[in-house]
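Long-time lurker. I teach an intro course on protein structure, and each term I like to show students one example going from raw sequence to a predicted 3D structure in token notation. This year I'd like something fresh instead of my usual example. Would anyone be willing to generate the tokens for the chain below so I can use it in lecture? Attribution to the forum is fine with me.
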Amino acid sequence: MTSPGRYHLLLSSDGRPMMHGWWGSEATARRKLIRWIGERGSLPGARITLTDEGTGTVLTTWPE
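-- Reply from a regular --
Happy to contribute to a lecture. Here you go:
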């Protein structure tokens, strides 16, 4: 079984997980973050978090 990727995006709406994505490249994950904001940022209570699963560090959240 292969690893899903180091960089994890989580989209939640009103505190409920709605969508996940994992990428091996931080640059790719950040591009996806921008795309998700444009496509899904209008969901009620939308929050998107980018985490480095290798270190456990939250790299960014939207909205801040």
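Some talking points for your students: Helices lie at 26-40. Residues 1-48 form one domain.
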